[in-house]
Amino acid sequence: MRTLEWIPDENVLELIDQRLLPAELVKIRLSSCEQVAEAIRDMAVRGAPAIGVAAAFGMALAACRSEEDSFDGFMKHMRYAADVLVHARPTAVNLAWAVERILEGLNHPGVTRENAFDKVLETAQRMANEDVEVNQRMAKIGAELIPEQATVIHHCNTGALATVDWGTALGVIRMAHEQGKRVHVLVDETRPGLQGARLTAWELSHYGIPYEIITDNAAGYFLQKGMVDVVLFGADRVAANGDLANKIGTYMLALAARENRVPAYAVVPSSTFDLSLSDGTAIPIEERPADEVLQLTWKGRRVAPEEARARNPAFDITPHDLIKAFVTELGLITPPFDEHIPKILQSSAALRRA
User: Fold this and answer.
1) Any residues with CB less than 8 A from the CB of 40 and at least 6 apart, and which?
2) What is the C-alpha R_g of the chain?
3) Could you give the percent of the chain with pLDDT greater than 90?
4) CB contact set of 161 (below 8 Å; sequence gap of 6+)
């Protein structure tokens, strides 16, 4: 089951509303780029790859509903849609990457006002299918890093729900399990949105993979006790030197992993790398509403005082020297990252152009 897909009979985007999991599995249908942007902003759809493809389909919705007769007018409308979508969330580079890919496709010779919607939808569908293929390639590469019997700490949610299907870091775990390896997962709750406890645990239950939920601040305990073999997480943006932005708490987890000599791997598609940024200090960090922290309840009662204030950065920056390697569809990328990341990505881009 795909996290999101185009419904051709109605020309709408259907996606799983991740805000309701695990209690309810509900799909919602979106009919405008503004609705897609709102779904991204409110985290009905989340995860960098899923956000990117959702934005591509958001562009298809804009193309489908455009009332502009001229191609120039149509392109003005599409640039408006692109602006709406790109500003939905600032950190994940896949969002801007997907929208730019759609706009570039409209600049090709042979694209007219009459066939523009078909071209946009075709590109969006291709991106969705590519996402699944890329994830499965990464899963096979990453599964080789998992011992035959292993305990893995996993942060946030990087499974099928964070992508079109299969997943990135959680996809590696899923592949290792399907290969017959005995994998046990310690699932970080991932506060304040609890993507680990709500979404990753839900996926692991469906796959039949053994797991236990732990609080984020318990990860260091298990690492220090020698009870963890591998740490896995994804990323929303990776700078040219290997610094990465990922769900808040990744930095502390990677620090504890290095201190206890446990390898930490980031599983990311090549679309998540941003070579325009030399290091992680330039990555924009989204700060989400304080209510996500303050509305936490315990035994049915609000935890924080009514007058309390809170800070809620959604991501943190993990320096490249805490990462053992990047697992990508192009293969493993190992240090020195500032040399290997640009070389591998630029070589791949040149091959695609050829």
Assistant:
1) 46, 51, 54, 55, 85, 88, 89, 95
2) 20
3) 93
4) 3, 16, 18, 21, 46, 47, 50, 167, 199, 203
What pTM, to 2 d.p., does this model score? 0.93
Query: What pLDDT digit, counting tens, does each position of 294-333 carry?
Result: 998 999 999 999 999 999 999 999 999 999 999 999 999 9
Q: Single out the catalytic residue among 188, 216, 236, 316.
A: 236
Give catalytic status of residue 236 as yes or no.
Answer: yes
Whose CA is closest to 75, among 108, 31, 41? 108
Angle at CA 264, nearest 5°, toward 262 and 265?
145
Q: 76-99 burial by CB neighbour count: b if 16+ within 10 A, else e?
A: ebbeebbebbbebbbbbbbbbbbb
- Cα–Cα nearest to 171, from 124, 136, 125, 214: 136
| Length reported for the chain | 354
Distance from C-alpha of 292 to C-alpha of 195, rounded to nearest angstrom: 13
CA distances from 24 to 189, 199, 227, 296 (A): 19, 11, 33, 20
